[in-house]
Amino acid sequence: MSEPKAIAATIETVVPGVWRWSVQDDRIGYESDAHAIASGDRMVLIDPLRVETAVLERLGPVEAICLTAACHQRAAWHYRRRLGVKVYAPDGTRPMDEEPDLRYRAGDVLPGGLRAIHTPGPETAHYAFFLPKRPGILFCPDLLSHGAGEALAFVPAEYHENPALTRQSVRNLLDLDFAVLCFDHGRPLLDEPKAALRALLAEKPGTSHS
Questions:
Q1: What is the spatial distance between Cα 50 and Cα 76, in angstroms, rounded to a whole number?
Q2: Dihedral sign, Cα of residue 177, residue 179, residue 180, residue 185
Q3: In whole angstroms, how large is the CA radius of gyration of the chain?
Q4: How far apart are CA 69 and CA 142, in angstroms?
Q5: 128 with 137: CB under 8 angstroms?
Q6: I need a labelling partner for 60 at 20 to 30 A (CA). Which of 18, 86, 172, 190 fits?
Q7: Number of Cβ within a 10 Å radius of residue 185
Q8: Alpha-carbon distance 147 to 144, whole Å?
Q9: Long-range CB contacts (< 8 A, 24+ apart) of 63-66?
Q10: SS3 70
Q11: Exposed / middle / buried, residue 194 (Cβ in 10 Å: 0-12, 13-18, 19+)
Q12: pLDDT tens track of the chain, all 210 residues?
């Protein structure tokens, strides 16, 4: 099953032009988050989860759906059918529930101005999305988590194909110019996210904290 059973009831603003909604994901026993960004007078959905129809419609018409990895198909196919929009997914993924309309590679610019940043580790075809317009926003999928009441942490190593490569992918993110860090599993960081990444990388692998 590629999507959780829960349906979000609210959408919150992260920064102007960026929105977030979340559910308690029955598949993993943890929070899962989805995002939307403004693209002119339309919206681009990132790793979408289902949200109440009237709530989503308040954001405006949807232009496209962009997926960071095969593990984040979630409600993409539901919304493709309902909204009649195209789904973008990484080149080289493992088989997905349905075939995306378009495949992207590292460095490609996707709808809404999202730049695809290759972040292998959780799986090979795994990407972050970087939105360079100010304040600089990075959408980080399964490298890290930031659940309510928890410190920033690496997603547990048992969920990664190559945990060492995951750490290197996080190091590489420091080369990007961003001030907002959004997650597929947890609340966003809006206060010195790069400092938080550096502090996490300085910890010994396997360190646990809450």
A1: 9
A2: positive
A3: 16
A4: 9
A5: no
A6: 190
A7: 21
A8: 10
A9: 63/39, 63/111, 63/112, 64/39, 64/88, 64/110, 64/111, 64/112, 66/110, 66/111, 66/112, 66/114, 66/129
A10: helix
A11: middle
A12: 578 899 999 999 999 999 999 999 898 888 999 999 999 999 999 999 999 999 999 999 999 999 999 999 999 999 999 999 999 999 999 999 999 999 999 999 999 999 999 999 999 999 999 999 889 999 999 999 998 888 999 998 888 999 999 999 999 999 999 999 999 999 999 999 999 999 999 987 755 433
Rounded-to-integer distance, Cα 75 and Cα 49, Å: 5
Instruction: Locate 105 and state its tokens.
Output: 């590679």
Token reading at 77: 């196919």
Residue type, 51: V
* Encoded amino acid at 31, one letter: E
